[in-house]
Design brief:
By secondary structure, the chain is mainly beta. Strands 1-2-6-5-4-3 form a 6-stranded antiparallel beta sheet, with no helix packed on it. The longest helix has 9 residues. The N and C termini lie far apart (36 Å).
Length: 98
């Protein structure tokens, strides 16, 4: 009997593999006034109104007021303050970049 399966749909498990590799930036909201950003490549800009972080896919832009950085590590940091907007320029193609 022939296997009549067509192309397999994208599996959420495959997205987890990319995420586990540590190459994809991850942003987690902590409470109402904090963001944990993991797997960034460095700080591009830092003011009390704007923080820009480099990632493999481009820059993550965080806008707000009273912004500060805490718990800064080589691959992760916490942004605190009144966060009004987060711009994520990475598209679907970038997420699966080798």
């Amino acid at each position: 009997m022939k296997n009549r399966r067509g192309p397999r749909p994208s599996s959420p498990a495959l997205e987890w593999l990319s995420d586990l590799s540590g190459r994809t930036a991850r942003i987690t909201s902590i409470g109402g006034h904090s963001l944990l950003v993991e797997n960034h490549c460095g700080i591009l800009e830092f003011t009390q109104e704007r923080i820009s972080l480099a990632t493999r896919c481009g820059a993550i832009e965080v806008a707000g007021s009273g912004l500060s950085l805490s718990e800064v590590r080589r691959d992760a940091l916490v942004i605190r303050g009144e966060i009004r907007h987060v711009d994520l320029p990475c598209g679907e193609a970038c997420r699966h970049e080798p």
